[in-house]
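Input/output pair, single chain:
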Amino acid sequence: MKISSVTLAALLLPVVTLTAGNYGDVIEELLSDPNDAGPSLLVDGDLVVGDETAPSHSIDTVLYGGLSVIGNPTLNVVVFGEYTSEASNGMPEGDGRRLVWHTGKSAFRVGKVFDGSWDNSEIGDFSIGMGRNVKATAYNTFAVGEDARATDLRAIAIGNAAWATGDRSIALGTLAKAEGPKAFALFGSEANAPGDGQTTGYSIAMGLNSEARNSHVIALGHNNYAGGLASFAINEDTIATGSYLFASGSGTNANAYASFAIGQYNVGGFSSTSGDTAWDDADPLFEIGIGDDDQNRANALTIYKDGKAEFSGAVMMTQAQGDIDMGTYGN
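Output:
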C-alpha cells in the first residue's frame, strides 16, 4: 500500500488475525509495496518494521519512534502518526487514462492524457481537469473538454481547444481563446487584452472569428474585429480600430476617434496621424455606409466633428418645411 504525501490522523488497515510470531509480519506486509524490497510507509525517515510479539491483551499500544500501533488480535489494526510515501508528488506521471485526486494540491483529474499535461509540475493547486489532454496548470483553474487550456490564475476553459490564458479569463466553446486578463471568449472566437495585465483587460468576443484585441472592447457576431480602446464591433465583417468607436452592420469601418459607423461598406478613415486616438475637426463623427463591397465604399451621410454634414445625393422633401429667408438679390 502506498500513501501519498499527506499528514493523516489515522490509517485503518484491513481486518487481520494476529497470533504470536506474526504480528510484525502482518503489519509489514500490509504497509509494503510488492514492487519494493521493504515497506513503503515512512515515519520520520524510519521504516516500519513491526513487532515480533502479538499483543498480550485485546488492546495494545506499540511505539516506533513516534508511530503508535493499536491492535486487536481478531479485529482491525489502526496506525496513528504522520505518513509519507516514497513518491514525492502523489501523482502518476506520463501518459494514460486517469481518475486521480491529488491530495497534496487538492486537485482532481479524470480522462486521458498523452503529453505529460498531468505530471505533477503541470497540476495547479485547487484545479480541476476533465476530458482528453486538458491542462489546468495555475491556481484554482478549471479545464474541461479536449485540449482545453486554463493556464493563468482562476481561468476557466470549456470546449474543444478552448484556451483561457489570462488571469481570471473565461473561454467557452470550440477554439475560443481568452488570452488577456478578465477576458471572455465564446463559441469559436478570440478575446485578447495584451498589455501589463493591470491596466488592460475586460474584453469580450462572441461568435465565429470575432476578435477583441484591446482593453474594454467587445466584438459580437461573425468575423468582427474590435482593436481600439473601449471599441465595439458588431454584426458581420465590422472593424473598430480607433479609441471609443462603434461599428455595426456589414463591412463597416469605424476608424476615427469617437466615431460611429453603421450600414454597409462605409468610407471610414481619418485625416491626421493621430486621428484614431485624438479629436480632429476634419474627421468623421458619424457615417452611414451604402457601399457595395470593400473595393467600392461609399457614404449616404457623413457628419464631421466640426458640425458640417455631407450627403452623397440630393436631399428630397415632399413639401416645403418652415420659413426660410432666402435673402435679397439684385434687380
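Confidence is low (pLDDT under 50) at residues 1-88, 195-199. DSSP finds one helix and 30 strands in the chain.
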